[in-house]
Specification:
mainly alpha
Length: 285
């Protein structure tokens, strides 16, 4: 995975440069410094985080090492599914999809789109708001406001792990200094030792600062940024669905409604009009 490659590059560049200057690797191996820095970082995280936040961070950190599936193929499948739902409603009425959205995992309609069914957040967003459309005569502008509230609330919640990890990253240089100061305190107890012993002891103490800064800017900080990007990718999916739903409720034809959604997809992940049209034509009638 790309994140593992990045970690290898960071570690390789730092250690490689150190070895180029004939550095002694054994000096960098300071288990006590690692225990102080990582232990204090974990403790400060637990102090700062309520239980549900800590649980969310633990769950989401693992996602850093998994690639997301929010590419062009994912969006084509999403738009194709929305087109089929809208077409069924247009032909058979709103009640025709009631069974599909009540148990989407068992629905023949939804089972054609495994990527969407696996994404519980997206699936719930679609089904819950289709239920609103079925059970109420909500006008398009009110539906638009309702969906904005849900997307904003979900986005704020999905950003919590990123912010929490970023705060841990910000603390690591300071905790590295704590480890270094403790090393200097130990060195002062050896003040009557030869210069070679004192130099080795001071060098070991400075490793604490090195490890704290490296962990912050080389590993933990980038992980927080990765989590932020994943949260924003999820928000894009919900915005695509929102625009398509609002357009359909406003009276747009199914193909026009999904075109509204297509326009919200950024960059290279956006299917072309021709690609979307080809997928739509293949949708079972």
């Amino acid at each position: 995975m790309l994140i593992l490659v990045g970690m290898f590059v960071v570690f390789g560049a730092v250690i490689g440069g150190y070895l180029m200057e004939h550095g002694n690797l054994s000096v960098l191996v300071q288990p006590a410094e690692v225990v102080i820095i990582l232990g204090a970082a974990a403790g400060s995280f637990l102090i700062a985080s309520p239980g549900k936040v800590a649980s969310a961070v633990v769950r989401q950190v693992g996602s850093v090492f998994r690639s997301t599936d929010h590419g062009k193929a994912h969006f084509l499948e999403l738009l194709s599914m929305l087109f089929q739902v809208f077409s069924k409603i247009r032909k058979e009425g709103l009640i025709s999809i009631e069974a599909d959205i009540e148990t989407p995992q068992k629905s023949p309609l939804f089972q054609r789109y495994p990527r969407i069914v696996k994404d519980q957040r997206v699936l719930n967003f679609i089904c819950d708001n289709l239920k609103v459309i079925i059970t109420t005569s909500i006008p398009p502008h009110e539906l638009d406001s309702l969906l904005d509230i849900e997307i904003e609330t979900g986005h704020n919640e999905s950003m919590i792990p990123s912010h929490s990890v970023a705060k841990v990253a910000d603390a690591l240089p300071g905790l590295g200094i704590v480890a270094a100061v403790l090393g200097v305190v130990l060195t002062m107890g050896k003040i009557d030792q030869p210069p070679a012993v004192l130099g080795h002891s001071i060098g070991s103490a400075l490793v604490g600062t090195f490890l704290g800064v490296l962990a912050c800017y080389g590993f933990v900080g980038p992980m927080a940024t990765n989590l932020e990007h994943k949260a924003k990718e999820g928000e894009v999916c919900l915005n695509v669905i929102k625009l398509a739903l609002v357009a359909f409720v406003g009276g747009s034809a199914p193909q026009i409604a999904v075109e509204f959604g297509r326009r919200a997809i950024p960059g290279g992940d956006k299917p072309t009009f021709a690609e979307l049209e080809k997928v739509i034509r293949a949708v079972p009638k």
